[in-house]
């Protein structure tokens, strides 16, 4: 039998070893889960991972994730982009749902909740034409 155990505070789960898989224990540090969640959140939201902060709170077989991140918005002087943009609340709800699905798949456990706190806004940099 193989037991997969995350570090304290993240929980554990057990699985039966399949053919050719060694029995044993796999420990995953909290920091690895946190960094993985930060990268996934940055990718889904569309911002630099340096500005994203994630906290993972674990229960027996599930985890809740708290994400704090700036949110991308179009440049306000680009009228066409502003009119075409998805409203922030709608985009944030879609990001929460996608993040929950992706983290459940990556962590191999149910993510019961994703709380997203928008800490600011980021606009794309103007590109200079030479």
UniProtKB/TrEMBL annotation:
Q: What is this protein called?
A: NTP pyrophosphohydrolase
Q: Which domain of life is it from?
A: Bacteria
Q: What ranges does the record give for the region Disordered, renumbered to this chain?
A: 1-23
Cite the source lineage: Bacteria, Bacillati, Actinomycetota, Actinomycetes, Micrococcales
State the organism of origin. Answer: Microbacterium phycohabitans
């Amino acid at each position: 039998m193989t037991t997969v155990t995350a570090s304290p505070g993240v929980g554990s789960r057990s699985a039966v070893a399949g053919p050719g898989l060694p029995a044993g224990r796999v420990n995953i540090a909290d920091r690895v889960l946190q960094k993985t969640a930060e990268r996934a959140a940055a990718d889904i939201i569309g911002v630099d991972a340096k500005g994203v902060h994630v906290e993972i709170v674990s229960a027996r077989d599930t985890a809740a994730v708290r994400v704090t991140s700036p949110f991308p918005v179009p440049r306000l002087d680009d009228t066409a982009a502003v009119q075409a943009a998805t409203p922030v609340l709608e985009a944030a709800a879609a990001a929460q749902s996608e993040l929950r699905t992706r983290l459940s798949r990556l962590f191999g456990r149910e993510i019961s909740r994703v709380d997203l706190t928008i800490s600011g806004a980021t606009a794309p940099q103007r590109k200079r034409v030479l």
